[in-house]
Amino acid sequence: MHSQLTLRPVEAGDQPFLLALVESAREDLAVLDPNVRAMLVCMQNEAQVTDYRRRFPGLEENIVLANGAAAGRLYVARSRDEIRLVDISLSPSCRGQGIGSRLLARLQDESQQSGLPLRLHVLHGNPAGDLYRRLGFQPGATEGMHLSMEWQPILLKE
Questions:
Q1: Which tens digits make up the pLDDT trace of 25-64?
Q2: Which residues of 11-30 are buried (b: 16+ CB within 10 A; e: fewer)?
Q3: pLDDT tens digits, 80-100
Q4: For residues 57 and 107, what is the distance between their CA atoms, to the nearest angstrom?
Q5: pTM passes above 0.70
Q6: CB 107 within 8 A of CB 76
Q7: Distance from the Cα of residue 138 to its chain's centroid
Q8: What is the DSSP string of 4-30?
């Protein structure tokens, strides 16, 4: 059975959840002293969000809720030219359940309705790249450690 997915804006009280989410993606930090690890995770999160906000004015920062419980984050920027998936991250316990695919399908529906391309960047070697390919995203240019990907809406004949 599918969980009910909703989005709500990030709130100040979400910080512990968001930090745990960042930490869950950084297995390389597990060997560090817990205090050092917490400091690095906090610094990484702050730098990442500051960069996102700088590069994508009007960034929508949302918490993904699965059956009312925090399951991840979804950051999207919309402009006249594109819909940009800036960040999608799910808690380890919520991965592999189709939540990411369903969130991407919603963005693809929005892309189709608006006629705007849906774009993202994925870190080389990130398993999410395989998911994006399965969902029809086409690889583009390599930009440092990331690969740009794009999904184009289907032009319907009138």
A1: 777 666 777 788 788 889 999 999 999 999 998 999 999 9
A2: eeebeebbbebbbbeeeebe
A3: 999 999 999 999 999 999 999
A4: 19
A5: yes
A6: yes
A7: 17
A8: PEEEEE--GGGHHHHHHHHHHT-GGGT
